[in-house]
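A common beginner's mistake is to predict each chain separately and then try to dock the pieces by hand. The better habit, illustrated here, is to supply every component at once so that their relative placement is modeled jointly.
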Amino acid sequence: MERKNILNLIIIITFAVLLIGLLNLDILQGSKFRKLSDSNSIRLISQSGARGNILDRNGEIIVGSKISYDVMILPEEPSHVGYLLSRISHILKIELGQLKAALKKNFISSSVPVVIASNIDLKKAILLGEYRAEEPSIIITPKPLRNYPHGSLAAHVVGYVNQIDRWRLTKLEDYGYKTKDIVGFGGVEEKYDYYLRQEEGGQSVEVNHRGQFMRVLGFQAPTNGRDIQLTLDLKIQKIVEDSMAGRKGSAILMDPQDGQILALASYPNFNPAVFVNNRSSLIAGLINNPDAPLINRSISSSYPPASVFKMIVASAALELKKIDTSTSFLCQGSTMVGARKYSCWDTHGRQNIFQAVAHSCDIFFYRTGLLAGAQNIHDYALKLGLGKNVGFELPYETSGFIPSPLWRKLNKFQSWFDGDTANLAIGQGDCLVTPLQATNMMAVFANGGFLTSPYIVRAVGGLDFSTKKKKLIPVKFKQSTFNTIISGLRKVVSDPEGTGNALSSLPVKVAGKTGTAQVARKATHAWFLGFFPFDKPKFVICIFLEHGGPGHTASVVAKQIIAEMDKQGLI
Amino acid sequence: MRSSFFKIFILALIISLLGVLSIYSSTFQKLGAWQNIYMRQMLWLIIGLACFFIFSGINYRKLWDANYFIYAAALFFLFLVFALGIIRLGAQRWLRFAWFNFQPSEFAKLAVIIFLARYFSRKSVNDTSLLSGKFGIFRGIILPFIFVAIPMFLIIEQPDLGSGLMLMLIFVCLLYLTNVRLRYISVFLSLIILPLPFLWNFLHDYQKQRLLVFLNPNIDPLGAGYTIIQSKIAIGSGGFFGRGWLAGTQSQLYFLPESHTDFIFATFSEQWGFLGSCLLILMYYLIIRQGFLIAQRTQDTFGKLLAYGISLLLALQVSINIAMNMGLAPVVGLPLPLMSYGGSSILTTFIALGILVNIDRTRTVF
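With all components supplied together, the output reads:
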């Protein structure tokens, strides 16, 4: 036979086999399958694993899971369901109307189990479990829920969990996310959702025609998500949050040697547990609150850096040899820049760079800034990590902004005047930084010349990434520049006239810089940036108080925190 | 000879309209975005029909010239999927364009058929005999196999085992239809089949799972086995006359996964029963038979092989998909041509049919 005829025959045989197969399923076994379909006796009861825990650097649980129970029923016989619900409502002490509403809302078909009550505690689950012997169509499945043993502690770092929204779903569909999945929002929960996520398992069971459980056909164990260990130290975080309570702003403690974040707080904060229980009135309150408690002020909002920015002006001028340690300017309370009068917050007399940093003398920095030039100040600010994203792991980081003559020409078609340089030199005007950027900048002076990359996740699923994440970019300033600025920063605290003198009574030697940012028609923002112990810096601290008054208030908060850390022996 | 045009056109139109009905019935009870996917399928059907008319009007000999370009384009898209898959850390079989997902593996099947048809129909310069008759084992089998193996590897890697093996089957069948010696083919086949047990280790876990489940659906009643069981129940419960349109419970009530794509035959069969399914299979067979008849009466070897290739592609996909629905073949993820939801599959099938019709039309010009 010719080859094509053989192939033709094979095709005919294949199709004949298909018809025979159809005959077998439809006619010979038809009645059996019809019965199976009518009663479709296979039920899938899903069981979810636990989301990964979030731990602090010592392995203490910040966010964990607790088991709660869901009650489901198989609504096969409508007449029976009413009776069943009334019994369940009696046992669980939940109103009958509520159960009926849940049944109506979650009903898919008479053969799919319906969740009628969720988050039942263990006691009631056991009570109901005993009743199950009589009524096998009640199904109780354990469901791990997010649990926050420390309440709102580190809320902005961990974020919260909630049902996936439409926007996220369209982005994440390809990765196996489904509608009604619980996913992370904000913080580590969002950024590391893929790792924290659990996988569903479940049972397939056979039921009889009344929907009563007969036997288990198969079981697939659910998998838990992976644990994530942070660099946070819960003890320090607690101290920081206690001192910040009732205020508005942000506080950060970081290790300047490798960029590990030890504490990060943003106030006002929120309790992530309200999203687990889906308390809609409380959630609406959080969203509508004009103080925006859901925003992480440490990375997602930027503010004028004010006097804190003077460190950059000083570095630029010293590096460019526009001033040296013997340069001094006379402060008489005000000075003329062009035709306008620029004033200082006090009258300081003759000031060299050490005194000017210690007293935060504006006149000295107007003059120094004009000598260094606005474009240079901008360039040095960028060298110290401002004006661009830090590359932090938490989502929704903003980059802040450092203005420059070039930028203004290109974008606003306006000229840059000396007055603008004077404004920039004291960190006012269009200049904006985030508290984390400020912390990162301070770390360069604390560790003697390295720009760190702050990070907060140390290990995922037991794999330690800290050596990979430690990235130090050398900042090539002269050693004398660093020495000059560092001793100026120390004088801020040690000098009796220094703006941070409040911290001098501490047993630990602290260096730092305060800042008071002027805001139109409202109270000023307060900054304190510092590092300690002075001789061998282990911590960089940043306190930022939104509309918190003068820089002094921030340094008082810093003092409280450092004193408490010292008392607990954490330094 | 316009009759083959109308026969194929009418049969394909009826089958794909039945497909739209089945998609509607399988999704009309599901919520949200599911509800209008039958509209999208209608849109694809219209575009597909336009392609059918366009390709039936283009002389198929132009494909001879464009062959390398078509093959290169198919490889390019497959590489793109491969590269994006690496970047996006996961499995993906499609490229996302403005408002649709393009699945290059569908297109690649057709490209490989055109490539093989041209390769085996080249003629020698001296006389008009076919070169393939003089081919040794290297030029007859190994060289063309390399050209098939590259897209095949990329498709299996996506991972899409079904479409990858489809290329292999087409290759073997076309080889059989050429003048290449039977002895070579049997050596080649044994070389392919013998190392299969070793290739087992290269399969993805879920692919192994599916093959094991095919042997015994009850080892994984939650996953792949569940689909086979539910699909068999759906087909079987149809009985002789079926449950009637929109009256199927299996496919509409979440029991049957993929009820609008790979398992659409089960959805159809539940509603139209033995009678409807037999008619559907018969219609598929009639199209394929038309293809074979066209191939047999075409004298030009390129057209002949092309027509055989296209009919075989259709025949293999239809029979494997339906067998998979009935639990007679492993679940490998192949769409049912013309019926399953999915633009790439509809378009490719209609383009292939358009080429087929054109072969018959141009044939008379010679």
